Amino acid sequence: MNPDDIGEPRSQINTVRLPPMAALRCFEAAARLESFSRAAEALHLTHGAISRAVRLMEDELGVALFERRSRRVFLTDAGRKLATAVREGFALVEAAVREIREEARVSALVVSCEPTLLMRWLIPRLPDFQGRHPDVPVHLVAGGGPVTLGRGIDLAIRRNDFLQTGAVHATPLFRERTGPICRVDKVASFFDRPDARRLPELRADAVRLQSRSRPDAWETWARLADCRTLGRRSQSFEHFYISLQAAVAGIGVAIGPWQLVRDDIDSGILTAPAGFIEDGTVYQLLAPAAIIEGSPHAKLRDWLLEAAI
Length: 309
Known about the structure:
- The protein contains 10 helices and 11 strands.
- By secondary structure, it is an alpha/beta fold.
- The protein folds into 2 domains: 84 residues, Arc Repressor Mutant, subunit A (Orthogonal Bundle), CATH 1.10.10; 203 residues, 3-Layer(aba) Sandwich (D-Maltodextrin-Binding Protein, domain 2).
- α5 packs across α9.
């Protein structure tokens, strides 16, 4: 008994034995390209593998599928009939697979976020969002300044310190508050001792950590805090994130936004001896249009507002 046979002879459930799928794929490529060599290149196989697959099918069917003339091959009538059927069959399978994948795939919400906020605030909190909303995958992209929404980016988190072109819907997340921050065990080295009447002040020999991405951070804070002594020594870094890491390492004092250093303050690594002052800017969630309640966008917005408290 042939184990491939199902049912009784001449039964309607008796199936025709088909050539192997790999052989059909080789035949289809050779028929489409009219060349065993080009079919081999297209399928990343050898010329011999294509030839053996076609020969196997011809032996199985008992007819020639190609006429071989010199270095070229041409379909026979039987070959054309089979090529048409195979091509249509593959097209139907591919269309069904594509449709099933599209139905099963949940598009990720692409969110662009300023790099330092992304690394020090958003990513550490993202597992909480994923735990609450496993049905809303989020893909994060680092970016700053003006952003074009709706072209691969669904939402963006930006500080409103630049002119945004194009129509956007902005949801305020939190006000920016900044202040000098340093390692807890370096306070005495970088700040004068406070008394009951004043906040601690930066020592003249303290190293001010600056960055090219926020070159005016110290001057802005000093103006808001009415501080006239900023010390004589400074060290500049390429990115704002690096200046904050330098503060964590104890190299000097950086201007740290509350949201970006709050985790290190809570863990006892950093401290802000002079506190934090609002600088007039606001972090916003930008969307191309008003966010629809109950949508993935709304779920992320509501979570961001809660995380910002």
